[in-house]
Amino acid sequence: MGSVFGKRYDPTEDAEEFRVLNAIVKEGFELLGVFNWSDYLPWLSYFYDPSRIVAHCEALVPRVRKLVKAIIEQHQLKNQHENNISDNADFVDVLLSLDGDEKLNEDDMIAVLWAIFCVFYTAGDVSDVYNQLEGTEKLLETVAGRVVSALTSQDFEGQSEPAVHYKHFS
C-alpha cells in the first residue's frame, strides 16, 4: 500500500483509518463475488435487483471517494512547498505532477488510485499464499529427504535400498 498511497498502515497507530480501509476493500471484493442474476438475465435489472448490488455499490462509492480524496488532499498539502518530485515520491505524487494533456481530473485520479490500490492489496494476499506454498514445499522436501536418508541408512544392514518384504496370506 505504501507505494500507491505513500503510507504504511500500522493497525496499532492508525487503527480507525486501517479498519475503515479494510472494511471498504472487503465490501468491494464481496460485491465482486456476489452472484448477480442480471449477468444472465440482463432484462431483470430494469425491474428488480435481487442481491441489491446496485444499492450496495451506490453506498460504497462515496466512501471510496472520501477516503481516496483525503489521501490526495494530504499529498497536495505536502507537495505545495515542493516543485519537483522527490526520490521517495509515491504513485499519488506522480499523478499529481502530471501537466497538460496528461493531467487527470479528480474523478479519474480517484478511479486510477483505487484500481491500483486493489491490485497491490490482492497481490499482497497472493504473495502471502505463494510464500506459504513455497514454505510448505521446502518443508515437504526436507521431510522427504530425511525419510529417504532414514530408509537408506544402516538400519538396513548396509543395503543401499531397503528390502521390501511382502507378507503372503494363504
Automatic annotation (TrEMBL):
Keywords: Heme, Iron, Metal-binding, Monooxygenase, Oxidoreductase
Organism: Sesamum angolense
PANTHER family in UniProt: CYTOCHROME P450 78A7, CYTOCHROME P450 78A7-RELATED
Oxidoreductase keyword on record: yes
Keyword Oxidoreductase: yes
Superkingdom of this protein's organism: Eukaryota
Lineage: Eukaryota, Viridiplantae, Streptophyta, Embryophyta, Tracheophyta
Protein name, per record: Cytochrome
Residues annotated as transmembrane: none
Gene3D superfamilies: Cytochrome P450
InterPro entries with a match to the protein in the record: Cyt_P450, Cyt_P450_sf, Cytochrome_P450_78A
Cofactor dependence: heme
One Pfam family it belongs to: p450
Family statement drawn from the similarity comment of this UniProt entry: Belongs to the cytochrome P450 family.
